[in-house]
């Protein structure tokens, strides 16, 4: 996984609540067996018309937001389906950070597995950042995971909270499967204990 | 004796393998269900790292999202869909994961297959790369959806890194009256708590109306916990649960069965257990529900009118309502029962079980689908289809003019050939009315199976109670 330490980039404002993962990446693009290549279809139904032409006033079709690396959005971002294609599509487009007042649990979790930092900030702060993001290329945001703050284009710092273990994994780009496999003995010992207590759990290996 | 614990606390405590300093737990996963859409990249990850699947016997795979619901003998026409299903079969063969292939009688929607096979049991941790894994919580098991990276993590380690959720209890008191179903309860709950109301929580559903439900109804309720923002829903296991599980192909037998029932009987929340949030509803306040907008929280009684954004104070909410009305092609103040429909979809992991089909048949019997309305009835599994046919339900459907199909996810998310055209309006027994969910530009009204059947017959949204 790609590390996330510090990021300075353009923030795109997407002032909608309840942006669901069907909006982020519609189902017709879930047929891929790869993780990459989904960026062109990010927000597909909002971004392109029925003939596949870009819709001029959708934020990610406008300069300079075609190069956005940060997204500022409304409450409950990423609700709905568990599809990890949603963070994959954001990442493939170039977005490495999403700022919103709240996130749906599964999406929030999926971001950390892909080197994307989801940042929860109070609604009033997100409203301010949304306005500042409207200034486009003249308004760069800096996200600092080490210091846990967002520096807005006017130089104001907004501190954010993030789970310590997730922060550690992002800062170091750690693969958590490798970490868990170091605990193999503990897992095996648990399975042994469980086999006595609840013998119906461990079905025969196929 | 320790302090009183909730059902969630008990399941959680019995699955913790390890606790890190910051409180993150390594949680053991008892059952892992796999489907074709969210697994290829996970198997690829295993292959690249040279890792095996740790517990193949505790894993079960089935293709459901991409499978056609007609002409199955001809295979899958769409090349990408076919590739995805073939990739699942090849991955299962390579890694030794049990796989139910498309023409197996047991094939169906993963969340219907698990319970039918007795793969889903009380007191377990169950995951799947699918948000509607919440369905299995009906058995009193902690079941939740995960992303593909976590699918890979479970395949490799049979565990997940998790922090405990908070406890929410939603109690629905009062009896279920005719026309009022599990779907109406779960929609009314989402209407009350909102689509993010359960974020960070596991919801335990309780009360007279919930405990009176069959297992099918309980699965419908838990299925949509995710639409209320909760990753998991739970219902305490009881005799109804044990009766459903007993004798299923993968359920315990003999002495193991007795031991299991004794253990499962100890799982219901202790007297005095603390919940972070308590919500109460009464069936007196719940009429058959229908959604008008593009979020499951946009739900009202069928007897009500389309809401007016001008009546809403929160500017973000008002903007969202206006956007939803524009998308749905509805006018504020319009009675819901005036809304004409083009399509009716009956099926999905929410309402694709035998009881749902019986509900439809009770309304359809001796009646006809309205002129010009397209209808699809898609059973949740091959076994549901067979049972429906044994009961003669298929004949009732066909005589009424309904289209009777092969099992799968179908038009719930329209990854296969079953989809809405732009502007088409559908009364659907599925779980999501998001923009474009059932096809680009398609308009979805979520309802119970009986309400969907009533809409098919009338040609517009209708109150099922008129048919009873």
Automatic annotation (TrEMBL), chain A:
InterPro entries assigned: 3-IsopropMal_deHydase_ssu (IPR004431), Aconitase/3IPM_dehydase_swvl (IPR015928), AconitaseA/IPMdHydase_ssu_swvl (IPR000573), IPMI_Swivel (IPR033940), LeuD (IPR050075)
EC number annotated for this UniProt entry: 4.2.1.33
GO biological process: L-leucine biosynthetic process
Any single Gene Ontology cellular-component annotation: 3-isopropylmalate dehydratase complex
One of the Pfam families matching this protein, by short name: Aconitase_C
Purpose of the protein: Catalyzes the isomerization between 2-isopropylmalate and 3-isopropylmalate, via the formation of 2-isopropylmaleate.
UniProt signal peptide: none
Protein name per its UniProtKB record: 3-isopropylmalate dehydratase small subunit
Catalytic activity: (2R,3S)-3-isopropylmalate = (2S)-2-isopropylmalate
Pathway in which the depicted protein is active: Amino-acid biosynthesis; L-leucine biosynthesis; L-leucine from 3-methyl-2-oxobutanoate: step 2/4
Domain Aconitase A/isopropylmalate dehydratase small subunit swivel per the UniProt entry, residue ranges: 1-123
Keyword vocabulary terms for this entry: Amino-acid biosynthesis, Branched-chain amino acid biosynthesis, Leucine biosynthesis, Lyase
GO MF term (any one): 3-isopropylmalate dehydratase activity
Stated family: Belongs to the LeuD family. LeuD type 1 subfamily.
Annotated TM spans: none
Subunit note: Heterodimer of LeuC and LeuD.
UniProtKB/TrEMBL annotation, chain B:
Sequence positions that bind [4Fe-4S] cluster: 349, 409, 412
Cofactor(s) required, per the database record: [4Fe-4S] cluster
CDD domains (alphabetical): IPMI (cd01583)
Domain Aconitase/3-isopropylmalate dehydratase large subunit alpha/beta/alpha: 9-459
EC number: 4.2.1.33
Catalytic activity of the protein: (2R,3S)-3-isopropylmalate = (2S)-2-isopropylmalate
Comment on bound cofactor: Binds 1 [4Fe-4S] cluster per subunit.
Gene Ontology biological process terms from the UniProt entry: L-leucine biosynthetic process
Transmembrane segments: none
Gene3D superfamilies for the chain: Aconitase, domain 3 (3.30.499.10)
Pathway(s): Amino-acid biosynthesis; L-leucine biosynthesis; L-leucine from 3-methyl-2-oxobutanoate: step 2/4
Keyword rRNA-binding included in the entry's annotation: no
Pfam families: Aconitase
UniProt superkingdom: Bacteria
SUPFAM superfamilies: Aconitase iron-sulfur domain (SSF53732)
UniProt keywords, alphabetically: 4Fe-4S, Amino-acid biosynthesis, Branched-chain amino acid biosynthesis, Iron, Iron-sulfur, Leucine biosynthesis, Lyase, Metal-binding
InterPro entries on file: 3-IsopropMal_deHydase_lsu, Acnase/IPM_dHydase_lsu_aba_1/3, Acoase/IPM_deHydtase_lsu_aba, Aconitase_4Fe-4S_BS, Aconitase_4Fe-4S_dom, IPM_dehydratase_rel_enz, IPMI_cat
GO MF annotation terms: 3-isopropylmalate dehydratase activity; 4 iron, 4 sulfur cluster binding; metal ion binding
Function: Catalyzes the isomerization between 2-isopropylmalate and 3-isopropylmalate, via the formation of 2-isopropylmaleate.
Family: Belongs to the aconitase/IPM isomerase family. LeuC type 1 subfamily.
Assembly description: Heterodimer of LeuC and LeuD.
Name the UniProt record assigns to this protein: 3-isopropylmalate dehydratase large subunit
Organism expressing this protein natively: Aestuariispira insulae
Highest classification ranks of the organism: Bacteria, Pseudomonadati, Pseudomonadota, Alphaproteobacteria, Rhodospirillales
Gene that encodes the chain: leuC
